[in-house]
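Assess this:
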Amino acid sequence: MADIKTILIAHNYTKDSFASMSYYLAHHLADLGNRVVFISHKPFFDESKIINKGKGEIIICSWPSEKRPTSIKDALWFSKLYFKYKPDVVIGHFVGANITIGISKLISINKVKTFSYYHTLVQQIILDQKRTSLKRTFLFLRKKIFYKLFCDVIVCPSELAKKDLENNYYSKKGLVILNPMKDRFQKSNNQDKNKIVISYLGRLDPSKGIVELIEAFKIYRKGNKFSNIVLNIAGTGSQEQAIKKMIDNESTITFFGGLSYDDVDDYLSEAHFTIIPSKMDALNMVGIESMMNKTPLLVSNTTGLAHSLEEGRECFKFDSNTKSMVLLFEKVERNFEQQPQMAINARNTYLTKFSMEKYCINFSNQIFQ
């Protein structure tokens, strides 16, 4: 390995949820003998905490308050932190990236190596917000300047995200590192043997394609009275009330609302397939959670995840429109005997491409190259 480094990560220090990728990366880097300074937004730490890891260590702290770090006070606080630890590498997620990366580049006179995450596609933001605004235009231009002047590497979770970065920000700094998911698999799937259960889990917003999914399912069931397919929907979002109205009195569609984190694995593992009908998605973490739980996917071609999967192996692919989804339901019913092997393949794909170990190795290789 290269020289020992001080690496600063700004994210959420937690073993659970999407942010666990940074928790495990911090421990992996410290196990290699590095010093990791972790600024945690959530959970909030009133006092700094040090974890010794052999020759390495993790220093955990939080911003001056539990609010989003956007103020002058936050910038001044971070400046002092920078001078105290003098990081060689800074990794920033979401709003925490702006201050940590920007100030580190300025103070170090461009010597710090910076990694900023590209979590959300521009086109997805446009779909969900529906209308343009001066504020959104200003934030876009600010981000464009930020990427150009302060970021060495922009980490993209998929090839689709990298292309979105290039097309909208005209940046060639994108690097694809697939997002991982903590392995929580504990049991084999326990599905209803008399039905074909297709489940959706996620935000109920326009970019997610839920309205079109429901429309397609209703059309399919109307033309196939004896179909065994049932549809589950779980999540919250701007379209929640409209979706409830659409499925009122539909006996083959069940709405679960928002699920607690502890209920996610059971929900996904009890389905024969998890469906991802997104019109636009950088990757889709629910799809990775599903494969981790040994549940194969029905995945839209306009998600970044689709580019990492093989049709007929761990998934069936489709276009995010009503006609294509009607044909998808026909394919699922016609080829349902493939589901058990697809479930095994889904779990194997998770282990080979989306495991936490794979992610930590890939990211640390980029840091030390």
Observations:
- The longest strand covers residues 6-11.
